[in-house]
Amino acid sequence: MLCNRIKHLSIGQRLYPIKNHVAAYCSNIQAIDMSYDVFESKNSDNNLSPLIIMHGLFGSKQNWRGVGRALASKMNRKVITVDARNHGNSPHTDDHGSKSMAADIVQLMHRLNFQKISVLGHSMGGRTMMYFALKYPEMVDKGIIADISPISIPGDISIMSKILLAMKNINIPSDVPMAAGRQLANAQLIKVVPSKETVDFVLLNLRRSDDGKYYWIHNVDALYNNMSGFTKYSETIGGLPPFKGPIMFICGKNSPYVELLKIF
């Protein structure tokens, strides 16, 4: 009954009407303020829905900086790239899943005063944007889902768990300079990571504090502890009505997700 009486959600010093978003609030999801970048051209049309882009696992808004700038210029609309929770410069939380990350999108829209958006999500971000479109269809104009399927996920999800476990167990002495530290991390990761390109991508997240301690900018513990949720996506979206707006699915020619999308 309490949820039926809730009319506004307090964020900072402002109150926002939550209307159809009561479900997210009542499910005990604590939304976070994501770190984001905004790109827009001189000819941006404010009548066009802004595009919000969310990256995949181990990624960040920096991966989409060039794309965001190019899309803003070509489409003459505002483009926002975000750091998902537990990634990049966004806050760390114990909870990590499509529902919580979709709640973060809702909160970002309130912060930026957006009523309706277009969405682009890659991999993990694609799962988030699919759930967001299904849960809050009135807030979505159109969307692009890159290299992920709503049906299932290939068996190599176990590799992601192995990568995260290796990241958790990496130990680099604080007196080792950054270049040497990366080499040590590389030597340990290459034992479980299938390709050098993937290792190089993961190593983009390695940092060294002022006191010499090495750390990952991502919340490795939370990602590792929530990895099993990636295999239960059908349960996450089960029971939600279909999204009736325009959606485009994109995959690379050699992507292991292509066949799954053909089935879809």
Automatic annotation (TrEMBL):
<keyword id="KW-0378">Hydrolase</keyword>
<feature type="domain" description="AB hydrolase-1">
    <location>
        <begin position="50"/>
        <end position="154"/>
    </location>
</feature>
<dbReference type="GO" id="GO:0005739">
    <property type="term" value="C:mitochondrion"/>
</dbReference>
<dbReference type="Pfam" id="PF00561">
    <property type="entry name" value="Abhydrolase_1"/>
</dbReference>
<comment type="similarity">
    <text>Belongs to the AB hydrolase superfamily.</text>
</comment>
<protein>
    <recommendedName>
        <fullName>sn-1-specific diacylglycerol lipase ABHD11</fullName>
        <ecNumber>3.1.1.116</ecNumber>
    </recommendedName>
</protein>
<dbReference type="InterPro" id="IPR029058">
    <property type="entry name" value="AB_hydrolase_fold"/>
</dbReference>
<dbReference type="GO" id="GO:0052689">
    <property type="term" value="F:carboxylic ester hydrolase activity"/>
</dbReference>
<dbReference type="InterPro" id="IPR000073">
    <property type="entry name" value="AB_hydrolase_1"/>
</dbReference>
